């Protein structure tokens, strides 16, 4: 009986041209128009490089440490002209100076990392700044310890403190990549310099730019307008599925079809379950068609298949739950007023907050946060996160939002469903 009910509702949907036009034709047309019309705006902005903000806190300088370095060299028996020559060499090969002048100031790295210098007493305040992606703290005596380790094989590690932000893993990874390459360069500099290769050349030839580009490639890709609006229309137009199914259910009540089903032994629970499953299946098919259109017509390369399956299936289940709830509300109100309000007001508000037409975060971060707690906004943010190349774990908070709505819809549909029959 359940499959018969689902089949009946599917046939009603297919035989009506209006639902097919709204659920399939309209979103595809809008995807095409918006993708082409706004491609220049969104895609040009996407060409700008991601730039991380690095704060350099140097608790010492060459001038401050020169006296202690000279004293150490004299204790090692180096005096006179050799001492002056070695001091000059050490100053020229100062790893911090090479980092600032040869690496971070290079044209290749400047577009990825901006550097700001701060005083040591500001360190605690800087660590609380969410705009800072990384802090490199150079402790006192770093240069002296480097000289002892690199030139005299002393068992002293010239340690540095690197603090990375948890707010933006991509920018933090860029900083970590460059600093790691630099650290590798200066730890290997002595052995290579003994082979006749200057230290500055050793450290200048680390594959820092390739590492940065690899970080970007591995972690995040830009979202073009075609992906953005395909996802935006996908989550928005899926919200119309429950309205159509609830409308058909009300027609069945008006035409006394529902009464005949009840007389035939179909329980209200089974009827509501059929609406739930039908809504889930229709939304799933709708989303698959739209994603396929994006792939074959717009040449979108969808990545993160596992994450996409989880999100699309979860959102479809939510749509099914919403269809069951709207059907219940229709039966209680005995009119199509709720559907009109839902289609005309609720869907529009959700589409705006969820970012279907514009990136709401460009207007207000607060509105964007609110949008992530709407079902369509949660699904859209989750899909875009996967399409940026982020890990699967990033979607679970958004899935929790979706299944929270599913639970609420199902619970209300059960509690509010009329127990004494439905008449119009």
TrEMBL record:
<dbReference type="Pfam" id="PF12698">
    <property type="entry name" value="ABC2_membrane_3"/>
</dbReference>
<keyword id="KW-1133">Transmembrane helix</keyword>
<keyword id="KW-0472">Membrane</keyword>
<feature type="transmembrane region" description="Helical">
    <location>
        <begin position="227"/>
        <end position="250"/>
    </location>
</feature>
<feature type="transmembrane region" description="Helical">
    <location>
        <begin position="20"/>
        <end position="42"/>
    </location>
</feature>
<dbReference type="InterPro" id="IPR013525">
    <property type="entry name" value="ABC2_TM"/>
</dbReference>
<feature type="domain" description="ABC-2 type transporter transmembrane">
    <location>
        <begin position="20"/>
        <end position="414"/>
    </location>
</feature>
<feature type="transmembrane region" description="Helical">
    <location>
        <begin position="394"/>
        <end position="417"/>
    </location>
</feature>
<keyword id="KW-0812">Transmembrane</keyword>
<dbReference type="GO" id="GO:0016020">
    <property type="term" value="C:membrane"/>
</dbReference>
<feature type="transmembrane region" description="Helical">
    <location>
        <begin position="338"/>
        <end position="358"/>
    </location>
</feature>
<feature type="transmembrane region" description="Helical">
    <location>
        <begin position="302"/>
        <end position="326"/>
    </location>
</feature>
<dbReference type="GO" id="GO:0140359">
    <property type="term" value="F:ABC-type transporter activity"/>
</dbReference>
<dbReference type="InterPro" id="IPR052902">
    <property type="entry name" value="ABC-2_transporter"/>
</dbReference>
<feature type="transmembrane region" description="Helical">
    <location>
        <begin position="262"/>
        <end position="290"/>
    </location>
</feature>
<protein>
    <submittedName>
        <fullName>ABC-2 type transport system permease protein</fullName>
    </submittedName>
</protein>
